[in-house]
Hints:
The chain contains eight helices and twelve strands. It has about 300 residues and is an alpha/beta fold. It has a five-stranded mixed beta sheet with strand order 3-2-1-4-7. A five-stranded mixed beta sheet has the order 10-9-8-11-12, with helices on one face. The chain is globular and about 50 Å long. The termini are close together.
Amino acid sequence: MNNPSCKHWGIDIGGTTTILGYLANDSFKTVSTIQTIPSEGPEKLLTRICRIISNIDNSPRSIGAGIAGLVDRKNGILIYSPNLLNWVHFPLQEKLSDTFRCPAVIDNDSNTFAIQAIDSGEITSDGLVLLITLGTGIGGTIVHNGTILYGTGYAGEFGHMTVNASGEACPCGSHGCWERYASAEALVRYFKRTGSDSENADAKKIARLAEAGNETALKAFEEFGEWVGVGLANLSHCLSPSKIFLAGGLVKTFNLFIEHARNEFNRRCPYEWNVSALSSCSDAGAEGAAIMGRVSFQ
């Protein structure tokens, strides 16, 4: 029987934003959205996270965390994240468990989005489905018959699929990775390349300008969408999924780039276009992390 005083906490740690909330009686409540600030390192962010949770709940039932990067789920370690530089072999699971004296579990942030979508029934239990998160970087999850496929442990790093062999250098050490062309940083780069003198441009500002009909912003979204389409075509050739869902912060701008993505996909790929935005909100990653904790330790 559910106890309303027992909270299963979920944390979604992205390259730009961290979201915290908890599940109680099967209802998820978002508590806080804070800046990640990767340059400060993991310990400072962990301190801020722990302070927020402690102010609300001094006895969590469990804590789940999704984080952008390569995650050793068995040992609870963030091995490496191109968008969280210097966060190397960080024992996040142990830190959370020791701080709150409760069970903790961690996974890649795209996988926690998928867990929420599976739990809600939006990703069904039949066929092969891909979930792709578009944000500071690009994450991915492969779901087969309602179960996440991990491969040797790290399947779904779609953002580091090469789309331009001699292209932009990536923090991961490679060149031409998909996320160098279809991420928030790439969108800003396209916006500035077309002649904008905005020093403080970010994805949200560019989206507002595009919605208002600004030609420079619309052109940036066109280039962004084309690169989204390139990656989706590659994945469809390799995996032939029955459905592709898009999630993450940039999906709020879905209407600004999706037709460009579809056109590029159709130009490169003979398969049926079956791509849509995940209907859940941007808090779905944190909710999925909380569900993951609840399932693991209930």
